[in-house]
Write a structure and sequence with these properties.
The complex is a heterotetramer. Chain A is mainly α. Chain A contains 3 helices and no strands. Chain A has one domain. In chain A, helix 1 packs antiparallel against helix 2 and helix 2 runs antiparallel to helix 3. Chain A starts with a helix and ends in an 11-residue tail after the last helix. Chain B has a two-stranded antiparallel ribbon. The longest helix of chain B has about 30 residues. Chain B is mainly α. Chain B has one domain: Helix Hairpins. Chain C is an all-alpha fold. Chain C has one domain. Chain C has 3 helices and no strands. Chain C starts with a helix and ends in a 9-residue tail after the last helix. In chain D, helix 1 runs antiparallel to helix 2 and helix 2 packs antiparallel against helix 3. By secondary structure, chain D is mainly α. Chain D is elongated. The chains are: A mainly alpha, B mainly alpha, C mainly alpha, D mainly alpha. Chains in contact: A-C, B-D, C-D. Chains C and D meet through helix 1, helix 2 and helix 3 of C and helix 1, helix 2 and helix 3 of D.
């Protein structure tokens, strides 16, 4: 039972990584691509770490796996903020759908 | 073919690529990149060939660990010299020796 | 069974990473290519954790931790020091 | 499946190294070099050398990339305002 839960979580994480990559390739401007990158960072890695932690040998190993996740959250938030602010300072306008 | 042998072959190819880059490219920053690729190839050969019957040999691993740290120190020194050269002369390649 | 599945997911993520690498080599603006490098950092972390579960041993989890933290430094250095415009020149 | 993983990793290493040297623009070459350092960390993990992988992840993916990007930014700023 626990094994099936783990497999399902791993598959969901892999799906989010695929979605993040496709979004990074297809989205029109820097701000949208940052959004896609944050999805891959936070949800994809989070689900994969959760899927491996539910079948870890000991509580300490599971906690160590789950420790990676808040660190990645903090790092990704910092990088996303820095890049978006720099793009704004450089005067890159956000993408808008063309008015009909 | 074991993975050690495969990565040793890749390391040999990387070393050849790096040597070609160091010799043929004039731009100094690109030459530093080629130098780093060359070093990575040598490290891969050392560690890849040191696996006998699936048991890794610790001595080349310790040497490669030292080598990585030395490589990053050399890269930092080379970058500082490149910046100084650019500040003093405004060029990013080494002058040719005419009288030699 | 789980270790085989973990290895399969790791292989899938590596294919994902190679596709992103091919795209990063011809991205239109500097920011795109840097975001690709950041995506490599996260995907590499996931691959390392999966390899640790697939028989690589727990030390690989430490490598994944360090990679997760230090891949962000490149992004910060890019935003603060290197990014000069939409399409910077070749120095 | 392990062999497929190794082969794909080896091909990605060689391709990124070649594109690093052949890229037409310098910032592209630096980003590809950062990706190359990351792939090297994965290769060390496959070679059962996690201690080298630790050093490579810290230095190859983090420190060297930041140094190169910093030098690139300085050179570009100096070229824009001579």
């Amino acid at each position: 039972m626990l094994e099936w839960l783990s497999l399902a979580l791993l598959a969901v994480g892999a799906f989010f990584f695929l979605a993040g990559t496709v979004g990074l390739l297809r989205f029109p401007d820097v701000y949208c691509r940052l959004h896609a990158l944050a999805k891959a960072d936070n949800l994809g890695l989070g689900f994969i770490l959760l899927g491996l932690a539910v079948q870890a040998d000991s509580l300490a190993a599971a906690l160590k796996l789950l420790l990676i996740w808040p660190l990645v959250l903090a790092a990704s938030a910092g990088v996303g903020f820095a890049i978006a602010r720099r793009a704004h300072a450089l005067g890159i306008a956000p993408w808008r759908k063309e008015a009909e | 073919m074991t993975s050690g042998l495969l990565f040793a072959l890749v390391g040999a190819a990387l070393f050849a690529l790096g040597v070609a880059g160091v010799v043929l490219i004039d731009h100094l920053l690109r030459r530093i990149l080629a130098f780093n690729l060359m070093g990575s190839g040598a490290f891969l050969v050392l560690v890849g060939l040191a696996q006998r019957n699936g048991v890794p040999d610790p001595v080349p691993q310790a040497m490669v660990l030292t080598g990585i740290v030395v490589a990053v120190a050399a890269t930092a020194l080379a970058l500082a010299l490149t910046r100084k050269l650019h500040a003093l002369t405004g060029r990013l390649d080494l002058p040719e020796d005419a009288d030699d | 069974m789980t270790s085989v599945f973990a290895l399969a997911i790791a292989l899938f993520l590596l294919v994902n990473l190679v596709v992103a690498l091919l795209a990063a080599a011809r991205g239109p603006t500097p920011a795109d290519r840097m975001l690709m490098a950041l995506l490599f950092g996260t995907t590499g972390t996931a691959v390392l954790v999966l390899l640790a579960a697939a028989g690589g041993g727990t030390p690989l989890v430490d490598v994944a931790l360090v990679l997760a933290l230090l891949a962000a430094i490149g992004g910060i250095a890019f935003a603060k020091r290197a990014w000069q415009g939409e399409e910077g020149g070749d120095a | 499946m392990t062999l497929a993983f190794d082969l794909l990793l080896a091909l990605a290493l060689l391709w990124s190294a070649w594109r690093t040297l052949a890229a037409p623009r310098l910032d592209r070459a630096i980003v590809l070099f950062i990706a190359f350092g990351l792939l090297m960390a994965l290769a060390w993990a496959r070679l059962a050398a996690p201690d080298i992988g630790l050093a490579e992840a810290a230095i190859g993916a983090g420190l060297t990339g930041a140094l190169l990007l910093d030098a690139y930014g300085v050179l570009q700023r100096r070229r824009d305002r001579p």
